[in-house]
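User: For a benchmark we're assembling, each entry needs the component sequences followed by a predicted structure for the full assembly. Here are entry 17's components. Please fill in the structure.
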Amino acid sequence: MTAQIPEDRAHVVELLPAYVNGQLDAASASRVRAHLVSCATCQVELANWEAVKEAARQAFAATPLPSAQVMNQVWERIDAAEQASEVWSWPLLSRVQAAGSRLLMSGRERTALARNRQAWLHAPARALRRLWLVFRAQIPLIYKSIWIASALVCLFGLILTVSMAQRSAETKGTIADIMVLFIAVVGAVGGAFLYGSSVDPGFELTIATPTSARLVMLCRMVIVLGYNMLLALVASAVFAALYGGSLWGFVQLWLGPMIFLASLCLALSLFVGSTFALLCAIVIEVLQTFPQRFVSHLVNIPLPTLDLNATSPALLIAALLLLAFALFYIPRQPRLAS
Amino acid sequence: MTFDRLRYELRLLGKPVFLTPVLVVIGFALLLAIANHNVILVARSMGASLEVLLPMAAGVVVATVATYDRALELQLTMPRRYHRTASRRFLFILLWSALVSLLTSLMLYVFNYRRLPEQIATWNQPWQFLTWQLTWLSSTLWLVALGLVLALLVRSRAASGALICALSIAELFFHGYFIDNAPLHPIFLFPLTFDPGASYWLTNRLELLVTAAVLLALAWWLLRLPEFLLANAPGEE
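Assistant: Structure for entry 17:
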């Protein structure tokens, strides 16, 4: 429409649409009016714009307005989409605030109330679904060496224990204790290399997400501990098949020590580092071997009270406390999201 | 230049790597002192830490840091060969561990809390002290070399560190089997702790040094293969 208009600063072509719609301020409007009196080109242009306005008005008048019902349906669809995306917004407070602000919107109170009620009803299911998604997402992110290390140590321990048991005069109980130590090392490795910038290539991305670091760490702990327990269970089954005895009885020997050393290593790896955590666990293991059977005359430490070769309530409580410390300590690490 | 490199390695490896041997010695001594008021027993037990704990700590540290270099690809593009850089890094760790062990042994020797193998008990003092250093030196070198080779072969910090720990625990538990079987003497790491009267002590120490040298040569060769170093997924060093 304005292609034929010369690019002359004196013309007011660019102001005409706003002039037609009455959107110009008084000064600009009077300038346009003054220019139109003497400019035939701009008069033609104004006539065109007025024609467009009239056509638009007639078209608008001919089209029926959507009813209130249609508007409600549209709002419901939009809100349903919002609810689906809310699966990722975890904090309860933000949901309440969002629900409150929606309630304030005029014309949508009933829809908002219904949606809010529905959201509250589905909250546990959504939370579980989200938990499952976070849990599942950790599997490829966990330091892959943990899988190899745990399997290797478990296999090494089993082969060594069985082969040495056949050649030496160790009793079944002693052999079981040795196997427990190897299984406890597996637990320690899992805890030491579980979380942190040195073992997670995508650590910066992880801490940049709004997902809680505590939740991430807890999910990883459950996955790795579950994997290690599965390995230990297989080793226990082999051991029980070879030497006889109750499988559950053997599981009780390593369950507590494994959880304790995994929690200890996790806490120490966050506090100092993975290598130091692993070493501390091994020092504890070594100390276990010294006073009980071999050189009690050399290292006279009252360590039998720290007996790691059985599952006891004290050991499990200590493991829980260490895990609680790790959970408490994690937010002290950098959080890009905050 | 050397000081700058040392500072760079210190920053790269982190203080925990250098604090680990010190913390192991001090922590073990404190534990012994708290649990036991008999000074002689504490001192003798510290001798065991010299032969068992410090070498194990050095082995685990090297095994867990050997392949951990986030700038590996960058290092491989440098005119300076990577195996030289890495060897210098391991040398720093080894020297630091040796220094801590030497100071510990010196203190035990000066205060006459040493536990000597019978084979060198009658030797003259300078030679006796120097030979006694093989107690920790041979075990440390052997475990460091093995940790290095395992780390380069398995390409996993966790696996190599855990295997060094598992091997040490196995030797501690089955020490009787190692003492009774002569073919296993060349790889028995803790003869002074479990068998101070052993007639094979010196031979064992020298055999460990020789096997450590072979393992170090193998590690040197593995470090010279860039394709081998880069064979695995990034971030899994």
